[in-house]
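Journal club prep — side note

Before the paper discussion, L.F. wants everyone to see what a predicted structure for a comparable chain looks like in token form. Sequence:
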Amino acid sequence: MSTPASIAKHPIHPMLIAFPIGLWIFSFICLLVFWRGGAEAWETAAIYSMGGGIFGALAAAIPGLIDLLDIPPSRARTKGIWHGVINVVALVIFTAAFFLRGGMTTTQFVLLSAVGVLLLFVSGWLGGSMVYVHGVGVEFKGKDERRQRMDQQKDQPGEPASEQQKQTRQREPVEV
């Protein structure tokens, strides 16, 4: 695989991100059910799943940082930095909600969790863009092809794409 944090050519970061994403979204759903009159068991489930998401995020952050440090300066690296920063902010929000729960109303707890979930969506979009647009973590045929592709993408944000980039984005129609 093209990432340094991998096991048997499989990157570790994408394997681990499912846990904090799933647990934090489940936690938010449990909080919504509790907030709308559900039993206390929903709040308990929300707190436990939020705590599990915190540990999962910490575990996913380590290989994510290792992979980020391997990306050469490019738009992909810039997106990776924003992806990491937003994830850290989400982690801080969920950690604060977890530890400050006793001093908040249920509405405040729900709102804080909602902000964390919204940040997850933004960060996930950036992470997906790194993979599907820039090819981060994708094994290409040539060893240096990934770095060459990223070097070609060093255009500043907002600049029009080069002719070569426009041509590579065009797809041939598929006959069905």
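L.F.'s comment for the group: The radius of gyration is 19 Å. Keep this in mind when we get to the figures.
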